[in-house]
Amino acid sequence: MSYNHYINIIYHIFKVIKAVFAYDFTCPQPEQWNLIAETQKCPRKDYICLLDEVELKDTAACKSGGPRIENNGFKAVLNNQHLNTKVCYSTRFQPLQFSSLRNSKCVFEKSLCSEEGQVIADNGTSKTDRSCRCDYCRGYALINNTIRPCMPSKEDCTCYLKTCSANEVLSPDYRCVKEKEQLGNHTCSRLLDKNSIESGTAVVNPMHDFATRYYDKVYRYRAIAVCWILIGILIVLFLLLKFESLRFWNYWDILQNRFTDCRNTCKKDYIVEPLEEIVKCLEGETVTLSCKVNKERTAGTWFKDGMKLNGESPDIKLVDDGKFHKLEIRNVKVEDRGYYTLNIKKIVCSSLLLVLGVTPEQINYLRLTYLLETVAQPVVKKIFDREFHPSKLRQTLDKNKSKTLDLLRKRKHLNKEEYDMLFPVKVVEYCLKIKLREYDFHKIKDEKKKNLAKTIENEVSTLYNNVKGNHKVSFTTFEPGSMIVVLKLTSSKFSGFKILKNTIEKAVIDEGNIGNIKTESSRFSFIKVGDSSVPVSSEDFDIRLMMVLMKNLANFDISEKLPMEADISESADLSRIKFIRNKLEQNIDKQTLDEEFEENWKQLTEAVIRRDGTYEIICQELKKFKPSPHQCQSKM
């Protein structure tokens, strides 16, 4: 048997090794779901990809009857080709219903509680996220001044270092107490120490990702298989050395050349920068596939799905620019998707082009969204302006601030952005003049003046860091022919002129210095320049904010549920608008099936037309509206 036969044997052994380490099939990403369903010749609503509990791997299937819906905290899995229900893994949670359409696992991943100072307070459930707290043993406290555990997916759980006096420590309630009081009774429980965890007295969540245990077994079998393959290679090499007169290194050179020629990736000696493996673009865009070689004037041929491209199409341009081979596709269409291959001296580079088109379900979702924004919102605003006249809106809000609106903010019916929109922050500007000592204006150089101005700006900013509110200090200029520096102080969320003036006056006049810079009391001045505030207008309010204000300030009976069909009152129509708006906000996939679309469209248009009949023609036109891919991208 010649050495070529031995080389062939070793080459096939390497192919077996590659097969052993091949990637397992994984479920596609949501944007590829429809493309995979089409290749499988399966209707979009019937295509599923779920974890197979028997095979312990992702498995795709075509199940008639539409998507599988599971309750909160559960997901669908496959068991011997039958759909089964399983609770979410301990690392993920499902706060809403699970649908097998475009989903293969529970939607949300639990928070890690791994930011600075954070520790896990509770692992949560299959329906809720983990809750975190701050490590008071290391001096950390919650920035939102609460003592209860904090859920990162719903609120700010940032921890900060809280400073206590020398004879005090931080309690589990994040209060500075005497050290002997730390072990007393507190509203917040103490952290579990290391000994309680090792002794088994700590409460440990029993849920565990069962797939991890089995994957370890699979990889162990693979390792055993690889060991047997390596033993086989050693036996073959031993035979080569014993029965052939050629030296071992000659065999190695032949093997290396043969294996390199047969690789399915780009050859290093020719390809410097290969094609990008996956390229995504939208319909109508221009996309360029580029490959760089290390030699100029190297001939190359382009193929699409095995068919040679000659550049005859006006939208396809082939460019051979020295070391670069480029394929430019203008005005990309869905038909242009596929595998593009560049062949250079029998060396192949491939790239998969994915054209993200617009599905019918996405068009349904966008039509409902545009209907809410262009029709429903103006109708709601018209009713809102009738109840709260624009000229008296500011007065009405101020009147109900402490009685109602502050309570709504506290109960999180109004978020911070909405509350700030109702009560915009007032901004006040001040002018400061400070004369510096021990500096001669005529001798000091311009470069040193710039450094001095930056220093005085930083020192004054440091003075105002401990004053309540937001303050910004900026250098303006030096007064002509003197060492009097002029600064501008911009202050918001605070209107205490006297406190602001006393802060800088104490440093300049009483202490005679600001940081390391010495000052004179003469020529000091602190003057208010002016203030500004943003007017409040319903033009800036969205549907949710107007609904909250009408329900709590104008006593509208706006419900969270869909009203009865016979109820056509104004409050019922507002409830319908709110219900469909909330439904779209909670739609993670940004898609709406035809049956659901028709029902929502009917409810929404009838409610709007009853309140303002002028929008009937606009509603009819919007139902025929087909958004472009760029409009879809901006709304998704």
Largest sheet: 5 strands, mixed
Number of helices: 16
Global geometry: extended
Helix content: 25-40%
How many domains would you count in the coordinates? 5
Backbone CA Rg: 35 Å
Low-confidence stretches: 193-215, 258-269
Strand order of the largest sheet: 16-23-22-18-19
- Specify the structural class: alpha+beta
The strand count comes to 28
The separation of the N and C termini measures 64 Å
Strand content: 15-25%
Mean pLDDT: 80
Please give a quick description of this structure.
By secondary structure, the protein is an alpha+beta fold. 35% of the residues lie in helices and 23% in strands.
Show the helix and strand layout:
Blueprint: H1 3-20, H2 33-39, E1 47-52, E2 57-62, E3 69-70, E4 74-79, E5 82-87, E6 92-93, E7 98-99, E8 108-109, E9 118-122, E10 131-134, E11 140-142, E12 159-161, E13 168-170, E14 176-178, H3 194-199, H4 210-243, H5 248-261, E15 271-273, E16 278-282, E17 287-293, E18 301-304, E19 307-308, E20 316-321, E21 324-329, E22 338-344, E23 347-356, H6 360-387, H7 393-399, H8 401-410, H9 416-422, E24 427-436, H10 446-463, E25 470-478, E26 484-492, H11 497-511, E27 513-514, E28 517-532, H12 543-553, H13 570-585, H14 594-611, H15 616-623, H16 629-635
Parallel strand pairs: 16-23
Antiparallel strand pairs: 1-2, 3-7, 4-5, 6-8, 9-10, 11-12, 13-14, 15-17, 17-21, 18-19, 18-22, 20-21, 22-23, 24-26, 24-28, 25-26, 27-28
InterPro entries: HEPN_DZIP3, Ig-like_dom, Ig-like_dom_sf, Ig-like_fold, Ig_I-set, Ig_sub
Protein name: Ig-like domain-containing protein
Keywords: Membrane, Transmembrane, Transmembrane helix
